[in-house]
Amino acid sequence: MVINNFFDYFELVLARTPAQKRDVYHIRYQVYCDELGFEDKSQFKQPLERDRFDGHSLHFLIRHRRTGLAAGTARCVLPFDEFGHKQSLPSEHFCQPALDSSIITNLGLRRGDYAEVSRVAIRAEFRRRITLDHQVYLDHQAYQFTSDELQSFSHIAICLYFALAAYYQQSQTIHAMIAIMEPRLMKHLNRPGIHFQPAGQLIDYHGVRQPFILYKDSLVSDIKPLFRPFFDSVCQLVTDELTQETLLALDIA
């Protein structure tokens, strides 16, 4: 099956080096500035989209092995920095009225107990499916992709969310994850068994968005059998990437 061969075509890493982080920020610039126009390009001196939350985030990066092209990225915004100081989350700045605070309260969560899924971005060319003669044009160069490679493109987003979920599962300090997403994205995430639950009202923020929350106790049990080997592979990769030194030092700025 293509899903079980995903890592034959792509690699997943925690972006640590300056080069890896440039790839993360460049994908975001392409998607959020060039393509969607959500961010003002004039605010960035280089084609790298960054914000105040990147300094206390973990960034996952997916790269196409054969071409070396950066394909997708996602971040987990943590509620604390490398010194243990509490930090704010994007939703608290942009979508706070939409979040139902009673859900957080009823779960017994305190400020700092939950993180946020944010800045999930996939380079446009890797959102395309099979095209005529299996060619996708990138930077005026034609890259030949096999049918299996092209079919694996649809699993890039799932891999990114699995990576975020794998970190969440292993964390001793994060007890919930929130996200501000398009409601229709839930159908895509429900397919492998990632069940975010509504946590607030609809809001107009770069289109219709809604707060969602992911509960740790249902995370592992809800993964569909078809996707279990894929999720287990991602968990192992995340475990290898998130060494104890990384978790403590959080060299992520």
In a nutshell, what does this entry contain?
By secondary structure, this protein is α+β, with helices and mostly antiparallel strands.
Cα-atom radius of gyration:
18 Å
What is the name of the CATH superfamily? Gcn5-related N-acetyltransferase (GNAT)
- Average pLDDT taken over every residue: 84
- Following the backbone from N to C, one meets helices and strands in this order, namely HEHEEHHEEEHHEHEEEHHH
Describe the structure.
Pfam families: Acetyltransf_5 (PF13444). The protein is α+β, with helices and mostly antiparallel strands. Helices cover 34% and strands 22% of the residues. It is built from ten helices and ten strands. The protein has helices at residues 6-9, 18-35, 90-94, 101-106, 147-152, 156-170, 185-190, 216-222, 228-241, 244-249; strands spanning 10-14, 57-64, 70-77, 114-122, 135-138, 141-144, 176-181, 197-198, 203-204, 208-215. The strands form two sheets. Strands 1, 2, 3, 4, 7, 8, 9 and 10 form an eight-stranded mixed beta sheet that branches. It has a two-stranded antiparallel ribbon with strand order 5-6. β2 (57-64) and β3 form a beta hairpin. The longest helix is centred in the N-terminal third of the chain and has 18 residues, at 18-35.
List keywords for this structure.
Aminopeptidase, alpha+beta, 253 residues, two-stranded antiparallel sheet, eight-stranded mixed sheet, 10 helices, 10 strands
